[in-house]
UniProtKB/TrEMBL annotation:
It comes from the Bacteria. This is DUF4202 domain-containing protein. InterPro entries: DUF4202. Pfam families: DUF4202.
Length: 194
């Protein structure tokens, strides 16, 4: 049976992310970092919103497409440099995703919708943009938080958690509080949101 446009789009996003030279180790197995991240995004999205639209599912899978191609150290190592890097990344993710969707035959309206979600336009006003933001935060908290927290001071982590919490919806908060945190991480989360 011929794969659907949706299946082909997901496969092409995965193919691009499989080229990531950076790897991430899970249970002794090495995975291309952004391929693993994109699969975690898809899984978390469907747990959080089982009825997520195809547009939202594609945006989740493509959230970090080819992220390694724009290195953080190509920008000034300050807040302005960081924000410019993040903006350029989002733009690249949206463009690459748009190209893939065009290639598999989606119309411009659908492509623009997916790109708007990837760019996280109108968070708090657009349900799909808010959902992608919640899922990004949930993936960070579930899979990357412990490792990240170990590298930074408690003060910095609490500040980041408070900023993360502000971006999330009430549903996102409820889902975050169900994550199985380590004892130390849970203490930091509780401190941040109290």
């Amino acid at each position: 049976m011929k794969p659907t446009r949706f299946e082909t789009a997901i496969a092409l996003i995965d193919k691009k992310n499989a080229e990531d030279v950076n790897t991430y180790s899970v249970s002794g197995m090495e995975y291309p970092k952004e391929l693993l991240y994109s699969q975690r995004m898809s899984r978390t999205l469907l747990q959080f919103d089982p009825n997520a639209s195809k547009a939202l599912q594609i945006a989740a899978r493509a959230q970090h497409i080819c992220r390694w191609k724009i290195a953080r150290n190509e920008y000034p190592m300050d807040r302005v440099g960081y924000l410019k890097w993040r903006q350029d990344l989002k733009q690249m993710h949206a463009e690459l995703t748009g190209d893939i969707l065009k290639e598999v035959g989606y119309d411009n309206e659908f492509i623009d919708r997916v790109k708007a979600i990837v760019l996280k336009k109108l968070i708090k006003k657009n349900k799909e943009s808010q959902t992608i933001e919640d899922v990004i935060c949930l993936v960070f908290l579930d899979f990357y938080f412990d490792e990240f927290a170990a590298k930074h001071s408690d003060e910095k982590i609490i500040d980041i958690l408070q900023k993360t919490w502000k971006k999330m919806s009430d549903e996102g908060h409820a889902a975050a509080l169900k994550i199985q945190f380590s004892e130390k991480s849970l203490a930091l989360v509780k401190q941040a949101i109290s």
